[in-house]
């Protein structure tokens, strides 16, 4: 059994001299010539991730004083050409089985996408073989974080910007509704990084790791545990948050009319061919996190069995034009070697499994390493053996007094802390010792609704920058008739370091914690983004 | 923020305990508090309204109805109560949860007045007939697969942002309960009517309806449209969890 190697799309300078890209484009032409009713067509595969096609009314018609998102309806997307025959959608039982499966803001994010890539890779390879291409073809990956060529790889590979293939035919890798061509790599505001690779825990409770070890979002590397129902708040893991979401937002970009590019919205993203190269990179990072970083995936039976453990539909991909289903679980795709694909063992690897490409040293500015924290709080002693408890307790200690509407690029508000609840946090900081670990403090934006998925929010506490987040998925989570139940998105930020600093400087005002929220780009005319509530929580060991 | 697993388990345990107690009362029917049982005990000829109200006074009717709501609906409140506990200040947690449950049951009690009146009216007109239940069953089936019902179910998933401080926190919890109850009535009124109209087999019908309502409540929100959906999620969950449990044990 051979092992396929997924290689860097920037080989041969990311042009069509790179055979992986050339054959990808040629196979795409074949997939795109098939109608959407064919389960092996490009359009069908994109709809597996998500779609705005069924029913037609899912995006409401333009309302007065509201932004118009009808341009995202698939019938209005220019990249989809007539061969797709959008009016002839597959049978309901087929769309019910396969479409709209993408797993976001859940701990199933990584395994679902791994299976998705394996399935389309096999369909593409079969086409490439028929076209006379290499039998060992594998999906290339785009590592925008790669620093080996002075950040040049932060640009989209040039093959995606050309209108024609070398033979003069139309280049399917070129997407007119893709408005971002470069990733802003860095650790500052609105930037993409790989700090997540320093996490050591997949999800809360999965590993009893060192105290405070890497948790940028509060949901660790792989996202929050998803149970019977997945509503009332998103639980996005660090890998999914950044780089995944951020890259979607940046590549999608916005045009002059504030319209998002298709890569920037989950229900249109998989139409863009660069989607699969981006996800190959995310998959590569997960594989490196396991193999190079020696980090473990959850051993929880509910994760290994997949959503069916909670009565939800199984992961399923069509193998061919007949729609032969391949059902799989996270347990089937734990590793890239001998993963269970359609009752056979399937192996692939990456030509680069470095743990990180950009953040080559463990972060200190975000990661609340306990020893560093204790040193800052002037506590000395030996704390190496302290282990984090699997069961943390959380408690609301402060909140905004109402909802907040973002109408411009900068909004300022203040939060009130409850004096009694905050006393526990203060006491913990004053009495901190190796036997009494002080609380961690999190800020949470709850019920964030609106549109403009390619925009970013930046959060500041008392004028100190905390973090930027991509709004990827905001529109779908906000649609009243949508499948997300109008819950909006929830964003969690670890502000422990900032609170520690405020405590040390004696600057905590319980009546007014200043919060500033900025957006990367202008908000669309006639409508903004609303935040249901901002909450401050203490999390105790 | 997600509530700690210990707290979630404790809340579930309390709610399920109350729920079991309600079911025991309903099924054993001490003191004949269950109104539907009275209706089926009456002869074949339609009774007068006066006779009906003597046998089943309003207070008893409402007590039976309240018990039915608690037995059939309480498990559906576990997730919203987790949510309230998770996003409330510690001293607001229990009062807010109580207000939420009170608001929820209050709207069901109002709905009960209409549904009980309909049941009484049917008993006045055609006692001991399966025809009203059959008609209610057809209506329930049509409602079950309608986009309106799906919209109600979707809204039932909505967990609004709650005020954290003072009386607005209590107000929001109560309003959340009322809203949640209204969407729940919107999705479940036809199913609730069905067992009440049955001359016999009331208990079994209540159990089946509870199963269906819990299953549909556990489903993810869906795009509202006419759609034939089998409400089997609870069976799927029980089956999968048993499998996992067995694997772990072996």
UniProtKB/TrEMBL annotation, chain A:
Pfam family, one: DUF7868
UniProt-listed SUPFAM superfamilies: Di-copper centre-containing domain (SSF48056)
Keywords in alphabetical order: Copper, Metal-binding
Residue intervals passing through the bilayer: none
Tyrosinase copper-binding domain mapped to chain residues: 104-121, 272-283
Domain of life: Bacteria
Protein name: Tyrosinase copper-binding domain-containing protein
Organism this protein belongs to: Mucilaginibacter dorajii
